[in-house]
Amino acid sequence: MSKKRELQEYKDGIFKEHILRLVEAKREALGENVSKKEIAMLIAKDLGLEDYMPLYKVIYSLDKE
What we know:
Helix content is about 80%, strand content about 0%. The chain is an all-alpha fold.
């Protein structure tokens, strides 16, 4: 495996881990009945993002894993 590929996989892993931590923190704060969409909207708002949909897609795909 090339160094570039290894670095990208490392970055992807870190990104996934941070997203999962943010999702878990929101669930703990708001309760288990909060939807993925609501969590994505709140995280996007906290991060100052205009559109939550890309984040929602990431959260949805990570939740399937």
